[in-house]
Amino acid sequence: MEGPPEVPIGPSHSPVLTKRGLVCSASPLAGAIGAQVLREGGNAFDAAVAVAAAEAVTLTPMCGLGGEVFAMLYEASTGTVYGLVGSGRAPMRASREYFVGLGYEKMPTSGPLTPAVPGEVHAWGAILGRFGTRALGALIAPAADLAADGFPLPAVIASDFSRLVGNGKVLRDYPASAAAFLRPGGQPYQAGDVLVQKDLARSIRRVAEGGVEEFYTGALAKEIAAAFAEAGGLIDEADLAAQATHVTDDPPAVDYHGHRVYATPLPSHGLLTLQLLRLLDGFDLAAMGHNTAESIHVMAEAKRLAYADRLAYVADPAFVRVPVDELLSEEHAARRRALIDRSRAADAVPAGELAQTGAAEGASSGHTSYFAVVDAAGNAVSYIHSNSTVFGSGFVAGATGILFNNRVGRGFSLDADHVNVLAPGKRTVNTIHSYMVEKDGALRFVGGTPGGDSQPQWNAQVLSRVIDHGMNVQEAADAPRWMHFPGTDPASIDRDMELRMEDGFADGVGDGLSARGHAVAPYTPEMMVGAVQLIAIDPGTGVRAGGTDRRSDGYPIPE
């Protein structure tokens, strides 16, 4: 082992232990609503929909009815792991030629031209239709009440509001957006202020009464489409009506140090987390020590290899043949792993050569919330939903109170030869994803984190902590983290490389990484630091342990 252990940053609290249901959310109010569903006899899938709707109110900069969803679902009665894709497509009128014709060289990142068709509400219906036991209306009614009555903003979420003053967002450009998320006079809300969202409450109640169809084909859909048309956006009624949620019982998976890790399918970055873990499976990270210069160097170099492959080969599988099996194969991992110099960072990292090229067939850091739910019967949900960046597009659709994502603006390229070039109806590769982990056929971990391009790196760090270093879930969530920048975001991909590190690492670790050729930089509290939620299940005792990141406002809440 190289170097001393990191400076002790004790867990913010002990893991929350229970033998019944457990909800880990960045919002205590949303977590409490989910736990109440479990107490009243609902299952994990029911609770997940209730938590998602509540987070759409209490974590409104991060997620909402205008956002997208990916999830892992575990059905205890059959032992089946499912992957859910609830991302949205580019509007059918969105094309490279359209944006180039408007004078854009890169996609705009805010405003009504930037949203993908939202998949959040549609995913709620898909989950309940297949796995739920409670009616949608009853599950989302508490979220409507929270929006109508208002709730006091906790510190971390309030900081998102305070950053609106200087970050150039477009809330002030749209009266409905300013009215929803700025105080009179255009000032941001502060911690402790009560945020009331009456327009959003009415929209949630319309969905509660009219079902998913109200959002996608009903009167609310017409109102949303009219608001986009008036603002010069592209989403119309046909785009909303065509939204679909996909559920598979064969999500991608890899082995990692004696465990089986499953992640959400394409077009999510679940593939990226899995490829990173596949590369790291060939290293003895336990022997290298936790958060040492040696272990961080190896993990960062593996990150660079995986991300290079992602940039070269991964896109919407409806438009591009993505060689998933080869990217996750041990043969490919062994070739890529051999390129890692244990003593020196590579000057450049190209994509690996593949037998399958990802050629087209047919057509040519983010803001997110993650939560985990386990119920008394052992069903589990690993759920991540997002507006993409903080406050997404900044566009609220008229009097609906619904804030829309900016995934199209952030995820597509206008380079005609790029694998992720914009096309009508295409889904961008999406940074948000979540995972589940089995060992010996039993579910052991349910986890994830927000964080844009940092998510695969942080997921790998957290899983290494619990699997390789024997940490409990709260220790794994709280320990100092690093992230290698840039990732895959078109807006920053050409920036100089940095290895960004939080406070709390041992003296000498940064110097050890610098000596290996890394440009070490601070990872400040103002930067997005994620919010890990992690549940561990002991199959022998039935005990569930919940950990919630010290960097969030949340706390694990038992049934």
Low-confidence stretches: 1-5, 357-365
Percent range for β-strand residues: 15-25%
Largest sheet: 7 strands, antiparallel
Q: How big is the Rg?
A: 22 Å
Tally of individual helices = 20
Given the helix and strand composition, which structural class is it? alpha+beta
Tally of extended strands?
19
Question: How is this structure best described in words?
Answer:
The protein has 559 residues and is α+β, with helices and mostly antiparallel strands. It has 2 domains: 29-247 and 366-411, no CATH class; 250-364 and 431-558, Glutamine Phosphoribosylpyrophosphate, subunit 1, domain 1 (4-Layer Sandwich), CATH 3.60.20. It is built from 20 helices and 19 strands. The strands form 4 sheets. The chain has a 7-stranded antiparallel sheet with strand order 1-18-17-13-12-9-8. The protein has a 7-stranded antiparallel sheet with strand order 7-4-3-11-10-2-19, with helices on one face. Strands 14-15-16 form a 3-stranded mixed sheet, with helices on one face. α12 packs across α16, α12 crosses α18 (455-467) and α14 (293-313) crosses α20.
